[in-house]
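Re-run with default settings, no changes from the original entry. Doing this only to confirm the output is reproducible before filing.
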Amino acid sequence: MIYRFIVLSTCVAGLLGLTTGCTHTAVPSAAAPADTATAVEWIDDQALVRQMAFAMENVWSQNLQVPTAVLRAQLSRPQASVPLPAPRPLARLSPPELWQLRRSNVVMIANAIPVPAAEQKPGEPKLMLSIASAVMLTPDGVGVTNYHVLDNARSEICGVMTLDGRFFPVVEILAAHRVDDICIFRVAGGGFAPVGLAVNYPVGQPVTAITHPNRNLFMLTEGVVSRYYFSANNPGDARRPRMGITTDYAKGSSGGPIFAANGDLAGIVSSTSSIYYAQTKDTQTNLQMVLHHCAPAISIRQLCTPGLPPLPEPAPSSAPSTGE
């Protein structure tokens, strides 16, 4: 019988001086057909989620995590000086090449709350996870996700895990912008490949997302940049720069990377909105289109590089027309 193995580690990097009893467990995925076993990588979603829950519990049970109240207070930091990696050459990668290049940069990012004592079961994790997406940018452990992912008042611990099972707790929020829905964070550890930014990546160019829609982990989807525009995610917010794409994603993809064809980061997932042919306050019928709204790389760069010119702004709103 042929297996693909995902090696999972509960090791927590030494920046915190953690003593977590690090172990490595090889978790076999379902057996692959013999003729394709060497050509594809089989991902066991349940095993990865379970491993992440136990890794987070290991840190949390020793009270070694940075309190999420401390992290949430750091969301007010408007900018940080983060040396960003240089962009890659402009050569276009095939989707399999891009997957191999960036698979280790894409991470699951999770907030966790305790399972109620009455619902705990022997041998099962004592933490419940809320899983979103993120991408690591620098070799020393700086990454980016959405603001709304880290703004979780119920969470007791936050951390990231790679496809090969390396777990790293989030130890600091370096900069964040609520309306842009971007958060630059740092984890305890490193060893990541550098990811440059594809600022002002042209409309019509191909993009690739690798995200975790509804716990379907490390899913690759493709599309193109459809436009750049100004929009607000929430009523009452200022309209800010956004990048539209045709690449599919869903809940759980929040904060996930949108890669340019050369492997640089063109933006991150932020939200979706649906267009219905008929819509009232209470009903929506005949779904026609789902729009995919992303935070563009230019906004990520702004948070990491003090002294840059301001981001583009929408034209002043004119008075609404009274005619038909």
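The chain has a mean pLDDT of 88. The first helix runs from residue 45 to 61.
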